Amino acid sequence: MQDHYFLIAHVAAIDGDFDTSIINYQRAMKASKDQCDRHAAMAGIQAANAGKQMLKTKGWASRPTQSYGVLLKELTTSLPCIKRWAPRSLSPTAHP
Description:
The chain is mainly α. The chain has helices spanning 2-14, 18-31, 35-58, 64-76, 82-85.
């Protein structure tokens, strides 16, 4: 079930809906069954909060959704569970 929340959270952040993203990362964290998924959800919350703050202070010209994606990738690159839920665009180890 947490995979569903991760996907909704990521799509919402890419669309610039950081509040929905944060809510769904929190749901993913509550539904997660292992430490790796919890860390991935916390990284998502952190990245979505950064995007939200950037949008609030600097507007769309600051490219907050791109910054979210870059930060999320940086925060989750070393997590072994990342390839299970990350969209292909963010996961260098995702399989076709």
